[in-house]
Design a protein that fits this description.
heterodimer, A: mainly beta, 7-stranded mixed sheet, 4-stranded antiparallel sheet, 0% helix, B: mainly beta
Chain lengths: 117, 107
């Protein structure tokens, strides 16, 4: 149980284009979803937190107009990287929680490798 | 947010017990302690979570002293497949990943 999927698992795009990444909780309803970014040999960095039906809360330094997050349902959140540039190339990971707090576990997706040429 | 400190790396051999200690001196009353395992190019995988004393599941044990300023993840009889990065997190409303501990298990 508590499976989170991401699609696509990897994507290559040209500079200036937009890329959408989907995060789905397959067997539970996710009140809260989180988006992380991880550069090679580094730890995960929280980008934003989203609750179903409301605007995402972005971490300091994360451009909300560049990284658009939509949490339209209790099982789906999307991250759109707009006007992607090579420096946006990274490993993007989502996680989902059954409640709005962290006393319940966050379940992570397998990640999406984004390469911007 | 409780900042955590872990050893950068640890080495072990197959069949040994591995204990990874995490320091979280400024842990808040509401914070839970959670450990995750991450393999390269994969999302983290939940290992165990606790608030105080001892928690055990089928893969690990978590020991938390009364002052909760540290915690120890215990992996019994590790195998080569346990080679991974292990993250300790202490939080309630936000999770902050530290650098983690790279565990290398050798034959």
């Amino acid at each position: 149980g508590a499976v989170v999927s991401q699609h696509p698992s990897w994507v290559i795009c040209k500079s200036g284009t937009s890329v959408k990444i989907e995060c789905r909780s397959l067997d539970f309803q996710a009140t809260t979803m989180f988006w992380y970014r991880q550069f090679p040999k580094q730890s995960l960095m929280l980008m934003a937190t989203s609750n179903e039906g409301s605007k995402a809360t972005y971490e300091q330094g994360v451009e909300k107009d560049k990284f658009l997050i939509n949490h339209a349902s209790l099982t789906l959140s999307t991250l759109t990287v707009t006007s992607a540039h090579p420096e946006d190339s990274s490993f993007y990971i989502c996680s989902a929680s059954m409640t709005s707090g962290f006393t319940d576990t966050q379940y992570f997706g397998p990640g999406t490798r984004l390469t911007v040429l | 947010l409780a900042k955590t400190t872990q050893p950068i790396s640890m080495d072990s051999y197959e069949g040994q017990e591995v204990n990874i200690t995490c320091s979280h001196n400024n842990i808040a009353t509401n914070d839970y302690i959670t450990w995750y395992q991450q393999f390269p190019s994969q999302g983290p995988r939940f290992i165990i979570q606790g608030y105080k004393t001892k928690v055990t599941n089928e893969v690990a044990s978590l020991f938390i002293p009364a002052d909760r300023k540290s915690s120890t993840l215990s992996l019994p009889r590790v195998s080569l497949s346990d080679t991974a990065v292990y993250y300790c997190l202490a939080g309630y409303s936000t999770l902050t990943f530290g650098k983690g501990t790279m565990l290398l298990v050798s034959p």
